[in-house]
Amino acid sequence: MRRLNFHHLHYFWAVAKEGNLTRAAEALHVSQSALSTQIRVLEDQLGHPLFIRSGRSLRLTEAGQLVLDYAETIFALGSELQDTLQNTQEANQTLRIGSVATLSRNFQENLLRPFLGREDLVLTLESGSVDELLERLALHKLDVVLTNQAVSADSQRTWQCR
Asked: Disulfide: which of 36, 51, 91, 112 matches 58 by Cβ 3.0-4.6 Å?
């Protein structure tokens, strides 16, 4: 199996966002035929049509919507990676912790005490429900979640619970 071509994915993402091949081609500074060809290559590689063509407009197929969801996540992670590396070079390290609202404050303070007062570390702590915090963890907006209940892995997320 060939690796996913991120240029093809980016082209698909741009067309899906615009809903129009001509506008996406103009925004990407490529010809409409080149863009169409790249999307066809991606469709062939994935084995599914991604768009339903109706006149000049394009609508996403069910597979196309799934690919768009993944593309959004992939490109968001890429931006986050760039931001993280840029911020790491410019500032201190950041540890982003989520804690369920019902977790003992004393427990939190004792657990985090070794990190408090470190000049090389920016510590952020946010409170919320387990589901909210796990969603933020899945989106890489948190580094760790503190909870007073076991969290089970599922087919999409392989949480490690200690």
From this structure: 51
